[in-house]
Amino acid sequence: MQPSVTPRQMQTIFDVHQFELPDRVRRELEEDLDGLTRQVEHFPVADLHVLIEGNARSNDVSVKLTLILPGTTLVANDHDPILTAAFERCLGSLSHSVEGYKAKLDNESERQKVEKGTAHEMLPTTDIDLASVEAAVADGDYARFRAALLPFEDAVEGRAGRWVQRFPDYEARIGRDIKMADVVEEVFLLAFDQYPDRPEGVPMGEWLVRLIDPAVKALMTRTDEELENINLTRTALAAQTPPRKG
Fold it and tell me: Which of 162, 208, 163 is nearest to 185 (CA)?
């Protein structure tokens, strides 16, 4: 079959060999590419090559997706007796690779901004008492640690919200099974755990920004486990908060 091009924002070429691809199945595969199309919509170049090859001996179908982006080429391979199963696994793998590449570009961009002095530093609403922060960590007291860093809460929420928007699959879950408040709490919990390893000379705001990406991914990929930890933490914090006088 001659390669054919689909009329989409992402330039997509289907190349089919030794396999009969019905028009209906072809349309279903094209529709499945909508999520990937949204992921790469901001790249100036995004070319996808879809190679589908039948194998008469094994009676399965091989699928290879090759995505060409500025600065990299991402590839995913799979095979299965059922075309759509192989295609979906390939697409999932490729989508994950795109997320990783975008995160890498974002980190490089932020680092370059810091090096050039053009980054917008994340600042607290009031000054932070670092002695109180370090004492809370030394005592293993998350409640005191969280209270000491409360002036960063709004800034962390804003940065985390913009970060989540870079991943359509993650953004779609906000307000459903995950709340932005959960993302913010995950960042501070990660900060509490990793504070002893905090690099010297790195401003607190910059360090917290670096934790947003791993915090978001931990929450999105281990949702039940992380939400349970967050909810247990909130219960403990609530128990330590004195009741208001009537």
Answer: 208
User: In angstroms, rounded to a whole number, what is the distance separating the alpha carbons of residues 215 and 191?
Assistant: 9
User: Would you say how long the chain is, in residues?
Assistant: 246
- Indicate if 120-240 has the same CATH topology as 4-96: no
Q: CATH topology for 4-96?
A: Double Stranded RNA Binding Domain (3.30.160)
Half-sphere exposure of 30 (CA within 13 A, CB side): 18
| Domain definitions of the chain by residue range | 4-96, 120-240
> What are the tens digits of pLDDT across the range 39-78?
888 888 888 999 999 987 888 999 999 998 888 889 999 9
pLDDT digits (tens, 9 = 90+) for 116-155: 444 456 888 999 999 999 999 999 999 999 999 999 999 9
d(CA 21, CA 194): 52
Please tell me the pTM assigned to this model: 0.53
- The greatest distance separating any two alpha carbons of the chain, rounded to the nearest whole angstrom, comes to 79
Instruction: Show the tokens assigned to 211.
Output: 């934790």
CATH says 120-240 is which class? mainly alpha
User: What would the two tokens of residue 84 be?
Assistant: 């759509």
Answer for the pair 11, 48: CB distance below 8 angstroms, yes or no.
yes
